[in-house]
Amino acid sequence: MSDTAQQLGETQTSSTAKANVTKRGGGDPASRGRTTIADGVVEKIAGLAARDVDGVHAMGSGISRTFGAVRDRVPGGGKSVTRGVKAEVGEVQTALDLEIVVEYGVSIADTARAVRENVVVAVERMTGLEVVEVNIAVSDVKLPDEEDDEPETKLQ
Predict the structure, then answer these.
(1) Treating both helix axes as pointing N-terminal to C-terminal, what angle do 39-51 and 108-127 enclose, rounded to 10 degrees?
(2) What residues have CB less than 8 Å from 81, skipping those under 6 apart?
(3) String of DSSP letters for 119-144
(4) Which residues contact 46 (CB under 8 A, 6 or more apart)?
(5) What local confidence, expressed as pLDDT, does residue 24 receive?
(6) 77/36 Cα distance (integer angstroms)
(7) pTM
(8) Residue 56: which of 113, 4, 124 has the closest Cα?
(9) What b/e readout covers 38-58, taking b as 16+ CB neighbours within 10 angstroms?
(10) Could you tell me if 149 and 69 are in contact, meaning their C-beta atoms sit under 8 angstroms apart?
């Protein structure tokens, strides 16, 4: 076998080996493997989205807000954005339960509708999960003359 024929044979073998490498695994590289999203991730997204709605004063029941206010004052405790939010996350769907405090004078039905819409849009956009339900429990109404246990700031 001549040197040229031998080199040509090596080149063909080399390109055949490279072709086999690119065929391994099959399918789109982006579809290889699984992505799992923790309940806490969905809870954070939903909590921030709910707090962003006008008319929502706070999240959680009175007792959880009291404990949260104490935790917020402890150095390193930080504000819990998941307070008042519970998520159940499956492989492709999620369901959420929210507990909110509304400001006096706002329409509770309109506020709940806006919270539901904002939460669904944010969670579906960021996670790709289908939100099958958002249950909202209004646990209190913040009256104008009541002192705040903890001031909740709106995201801008």
Answers:
(1) 140
(2) 43, 44, 47, 48, 51
(3) HHHHHHHHH--EEEEEEEEEEEEE-T
(4) 85, 87, 96, 98, 119, 122, 123, 134
(5) 66
(6) 27
(7) 0.70
(8) 113
(9) eeebbbbbbbbbbbbbebbbb
(10) yes
Name the CA dihedral angle for 117, 80, 56, 87, rounded to a multiple of 10 degrees: 30
Spatial contact of 57 and 103, defined as CB atoms under 8 Å apart: yes
pLDDT digits (tens, 9 = 90+) for 106-146: 999 999 999 999 999 999 999 999 999 999 999 999 999 87
Name the CA radius of gyration of the chain, rounded.
26
- Tokens of residue 44, six digits: 């954070």
Instruction: Answer whether 30's CB lies under 8 Å from 70's CB.
Output: no
